[in-house]
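Recap slide: Gluconolactonase, sequence and predicted structure.
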Amino acid sequence: MTSSLTFPDSQQHGGGFDRRKILTGAAALAASAVTMKTASAASVAPLGQTGAPTTASPPLPLGPLPGARYPDARLESMKKPKVSFGPTGFPAFAGTMAVERVATGFRWAEGPVYFPAGRYVLFSDIPNNRIMRFSEDDGHLSVYRQPSMNSNGNTIDREGRLITCEHSGRRVTRTELDGSITIIADKYNGKKLNSPNDAVVAADGSIWFCDPAYGIGGYYEGIKAEPEQDKKNVYRVDPKSGDIKMVVDDFVEPNGLCFSPDEKKLYICDTGFTDGPDNPSHIRVFDVDLGAGKLSNSKVFADMPKPSITDGLRCDTAGRLWCSVGWGDPNEDGVRCYTADGDLLGKIHIPETVANLCFGGQQRNRLYICGSSSLYAVYTSAQGAMKP
C-alpha cells in the first residue's frame, strides 16, 4: 500500500513541520494497513484456521462452539432421564463434553478415517482435490495429498494402509506403506465404475464399497461423464484373488456403509432422494455371510426426515449406529445415534450440513465429524468399534 501525507501550508512553508502530527498520521496509516492485511488474511485462510462460512453469524471460531456450556445443549438425548450412562442412554450426553470446531476452510469435507499409529485423522476436501491431515496431539492441519483424484470416502485396512474412493479416478485405491498407490477396483464387467463413494474393510481383508454417480454428475467434485454401469451398485473385492463381485444392485444411490462390530450386519445408506422426491432417504441393513461374500434379508433400518439425508455411518462397540445428517432442515444438521434395533437415542447438533464421521482418539471415544467447511469433534462415553 502506498499513500501521501499532505499538510496545511503553515506546516509546509515557513512554519516548520509538526512532527507529532506527522507521527500520529503515519501511525494511523500503519494501523490501517495492518487492519486491512489482517482482514484479507482472515478471509483467505489458506489452511482453514479462520472464518469459513457456516449457518452461524458471525463466522465460528476454532475451539468450543460459541455459547457452549456444560452440559452442551447441542447433545440432545431422546431418552429420559436426559443425563444417562446406562444401556438405553444417549452415550454422547455427558456433563463435561462439548462440540468443538477443530479445523475449517474446506469446500466439502468428507470421508474421515483415524490412524491410531500416528494419532491423526485423514479426510477428503473433494472440490479442492486434496486429502487433509489433522494431528490430534497438537492440532496441526496439513495437506496429506494433492491432487487426490477428488477423493471421497477413506478407510484403513488391517495392515494400516489407506483405502480411498476416488471420483475423478473412478476407482478404489490402496496407499501402500511405502507411499505407492495400488488400484483395487476401477472396472466391473469390463466397464468403468461410476464414482466410488465410500468403503469398509472386513476382518478377512475383503473390501466393500458403494458406487453412486455423484462424482461424474459435474466438474465440481470430479469429471463429468456418462455412467457406463447400468445400475449403481455395492461391490465386494475378494482379498485373495482381487475379483470384484456385485453384492447389491437395487439402490437408487448407495452411499455410506459400515459393518456391525461382529460383522454379521452391514448397514448401507440410500441417498436416492437427491435424484427425486419419491426416492428413499434411509439406511438399510443386511445379514452378512462373510465367508461367501453375500448379503441377504434387506430391510429398512431407519428413515431420515426428508429433505435431509444421511451418507456416513459408524458403529460403536455396543452395536449402536452413528450416522451423519444434512442437506435438509438445518435443525437436523448433525449426527444421529441409533440402537442396534433402530431406536433413536439422541442427536448431536452441528451448525453445518454433516457428510461423514469416524471415531478416533487413543481410547476411540472421540467422534470426528465432517461438517461441510469444517471438521468438528466431540468426546463420547461410547467407543468406536475396532473395525474402521
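The longest helix spans residues 19-44.
The CA atoms of residues 336 and 347 lie 5 Å apart.
(End of recap.)
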